[in-house]
Amino acid sequence: MALDIRPVLSDRKHEAVARIFGYETIPVVSPHSLEINWSRVHYEYKEGAPTLQLQLHGVSAADIPLRIIGTIMDFLDAFEKFYKSIFDILFDDVAWRYMERALEPSNMSSKFDEAIMKIDKKHRHWGAIERCIRDIFLLNRMQTEIFKDLFATRPRSGEDADRFAYRIKTMFRAANIPEMEKIIITKIHVELPDLGQERVRNHFKSVEDIPSLDMLLGFICDHPSLLRGHWTDPIAWIRNMFSDNGTESDGQSRRNHSRSSPGSLRARSHRRNRGRGPKRQAPYRRA
């Protein structure tokens, strides 16, 4: 039975439905409840709404994971920003109803509909929508590619600061491991050139004081020269330090040991004497 009541303006969602949809009465689920009956709300198409279109023509095999994941993450960001600006506090209640149409260009709307219908209507919030998108595009099975790109914390050939930051930010979000943010920050810092590391520490006071990955990547984008310059290889530096102090390397020590061991000395003496015949004694001369 359809039931409508006058909006209770002290209820934030009633006020939002009346304001955003222009309703004079609010559809509710029962006469004893203020809960909105969302199935009776009319959802109109919004001009300029984001849609997801995956274009992989001409993309190299090495760049496909970033293209797929980047396109999906960018779409989710655009979708959330667009519909939140329209629906405000109603976003979590109505977003899933607009997602199906947004996925039509990718021929994934039916798969999304099948996935979201497995979730109770009261729990189809934005987090659940994102999980459905990850599932239907098999992002959870791309962890190897995601982590490979995420932990490649030095710029690749031809990758400028903006592209580097985009790759790291995209893969960090796709990895869905917020508890590892500090680890990624530290890894980026230690793989910056020497002067870049110093400038980051001077700006943020210390690596531990960097507030977020976004803040670090933003600083790098604002100062792209941080990615250029000499980087000291710590292993090579330690080896040089030991060498300068007169400490033998393991290989040199083994060679010296083999040269001085009694067994090796006897072996070399035997090789030198082999084929010479018996040693002749000097003739005896009377004094």
Overview of this protein structure:
There is one protein chain. This protein has 13 helices and two strands. It has a two-stranded antiparallel sheet with strand order 1-2. It is elongated and about 85 Å long. By secondary structure, it is an all-alpha fold.
Tell how many strands the DSSP assignment holds.
2
Task: Work out the strand percent.
Answer: under 5%
Distance between the termini: 141 Å
Radius of gyration (Å) = 34 Å
What does the average pLDDT come to?
86
Estimate percent helicity: 40-55%
| Largest beta sheet: strand ordering | 1-2
Number of helices: 13
Q: Biggest β-sheet: count, sense, barrel?
A: 2 strands, antiparallel
Quaternary arrangement of the chains shown? single chain
Shape: elongated
In short:
The chain is mostly helical and 287 residues long. Helix content is 53%, strand content 1%.
What are the salient characteristics of this protein?
2 strands, 287 residues, two-stranded antiparallel ribbon, mainly alpha
Helix and strand arrangement:
Elements: E1 4-5, H1 12-21, E2 26-27, H2 64-87, H3 91-102, H4 109-116, H5 126-136, H6 143-150, H7 161-175, H8 181-190, H9 194-204, H10 213-222, H11 234-244, H12 250-260, H13 262-273
Antiparallel strand pairs: 1-2
